[in-house]
Amino acid sequence: MTASSLPAVDIVRARRHGIADLLSRTAARLPDRTAVVHGGLRQTYAELDAVVSRTAGALAARGVAKGDRVVLFARNSHGYVVAYFALARLGAVSVPVNFMLTPPEVAYVLDHSGAVGVIAGADLLDTTEAALTQAAPPRLVLRAAIGGAQKTGWEELAALGEERGHPVPEPALHDDDPVQLLYTSGTESRPKGAVMTSRNLVAQYLTAIVDGGMSADDVEIHALPLYHCAQLHAFLTPDIYLGATSVILPAPDPAALLATIEAERVTKLFAPPTVWISLLHHPEFTERDLSSLRKGYYGAAAMPVPVLAELRRRLQGLALYNFYGQTEMSPIATVLGPADQERKAGSAGRAALNVETRVVDEDDRPVPPGTVGEITHRGPHTLFGYWRDPERTAEAFRGGWFHSGDLGVMDEEGYLTVVDRKKDMVNSGGENVSGREVEEVIHAHPAVTEAAVFGVPHPYWIEAVTAVVVVEPGRRVGAEDIVAHCRERLAGFKVPKYVALAESLPKNPSGKILKRQLRDDYAHLGEDSERGM
Predict the structure, then answer these.
(1) Is the pLDDT of residue 384 over 50?
(2) What per-residue confidence (pLDDT) applies to 13?
């Protein structure tokens, strides 16, 4: 009998390798291994797989089917993990949404995705209902709450996981069927829906595991938001794939992170530089037993070189990895491994296992090493396209490469250094200034803990280089000290025209500094050209 004479559905099912399959296969291999820890709950892989199956059956009984979009609007929890895998088991398309969004912003995602269901955190039900009144999605077949359904018309997700007797459909799932929509803010006024399929996600998981040195004996904290692709796809799902243990925390609170590392003997932690900085400066850093921590990962922003040096000094057994990428790359594009942290400090590393990366000019021609250009990628990690947006999809994939919108420079060895987002370059007096370069210099000041550099409109300079700086408590440092520090180390046109001292920098739940907000908050500085330093 040839393959062509077999029922096509049987071949598809036998070869399937999607998100839900990763969990069920790990449960078959390692049924008694601890899969998830959340608060007082400890659940094995067999137990997690069973509750996911029951939940999937209950969702199917309510009308959720293959291809249906269901919004996930909640903070990190065991329920979030269950919902994510249960939807995948049905072939439904999960749509994670930032829990900080306002009702109009959530309404846009509901409308644009055409969601037929919502799974929301109990603390976000008011926002969800307000969004639903402003949206015009198809008739919802599902309204489920994580953490308690206090409102009429909502079911408790945990109760669905207790229902028995509902069959779990086994739809024919293909490698490039959409399994998730991840909305990206970008520079446009409206977010884009990046279509994720099993093909690009599984390829990315393999890259994360191999290039990130991950293993089945890992115990990892997941404290950054699971709605974000970094925590969800570079760490949580690879851990499930391997059979590692995932400890779920609601937020990256420094005290909670340090206590959990000690209590759970955590071996692995991902955090953006802002969170690593908060750990280093927390009073419990030297009091907690952090000896189990073997692997540390950073991303979302470049790690300031002085902070990198301090991490290496204070956690000498820690192997550090820099994962650079973006949502559209699922998200890993390049990796800087432990052996290169000092030799290539500040670099984003080389193209990851399943990725090709090159830097191109305005005409999409590769540029020589040492030349700044736009960073482009290709490989199976890349998104399948933008949901209902063929024009943006065509523009992003022109020439057969995905255009990242980031500016970078590659050296002779193929190591990439990210200069800035195109939108984050400051055009001051006709000269391009990299905010990241200026931030690195400011971070080298011994009293500085955080810094953000950006441009504000200026009548003479077009844009004025502006820095907002956070200094250590009790240190007497003024704006003039920061400017003097920069003048010793930077060309004159790169020295900030304005420096503002702040107690903290605004950040999103993923730890990224909100430069757009800073631009708005400090735009007034450029109104008086006489105030320039």
Answers:
(1) yes
(2) 82
**pLDDT on residue 188:** 41
pLDDT in tens, 17-76: 999 899 999 999 999 999 999 999 999 999 999 999 999 999 999 999 999 999 999 999
Residue 351, beta-bridge partner list:
334
Rounded (10°) CA dihedral 501, 503, 506, 508: 140
| Per-residue tokens: 450 | 């955080």
**Residues 6 or more apart in contact with residue 95 via CB below 8 angstroms:** 69, 70, 71, 72, 109, 113, 115, 180, 181, 183, 193
Taking the CB of residue 289, how many other CB atoms lie within 10 A of it? 11
Cis peptide before 96 (omega within 30 of 0): no
Query: Do residues 261 and 288 make contact, with C-beta atoms less than 8 angstroms apart?
Result: yes
Dihedral over Cα of 319, 325, 330, 335: its sign: negative
Distance CA 292, CA 286 (A): 14
Q: How far is CA 348 from CA 39, 61, 86, 351, 415, in A?
A: 35, 46, 35, 9, 7
Q: What is the pLDDT of residues 177-234, one digit of tens each?
A: 999 999 986 434 478 999 999 999 999 999 999 999 999 999 999 999 999 999 999 9
Mean pLDDT of 502-531: 80
For 342, the 3-state DSSP assignment is coil
Cα separation values, 404 from 301, 401, 429, 493, 505, Å? 15, 9, 26, 27, 26
Residues shown for the chain: 533
Q: Which two tokens stand for residue 188?
A: 């446009």
Domains of the chain: 17-173 (3.40.50.980), 198-421 (3.40.50.12780), 429-531 (3.30.300.30)
Query: 129-151, pLDDT tens digit by residue?
Result: 999 999 987 789 999 999 987 89
Residue 21 backbone class (left: φ over 0; alpha: ψ -120 to 50; beta: rest): alpha
- Count CA within 13 A, CB hemisphere, residue 223: 24
SS3 113: helix
Q: What pTM value is reported for the model?
A: 0.83
Quickly count: other Cβ atoms within 10 Å of residue 489's Cβ. Answer: 14
From 382, 436, 427, select the one nearest 408 (Cα to Cα): 436
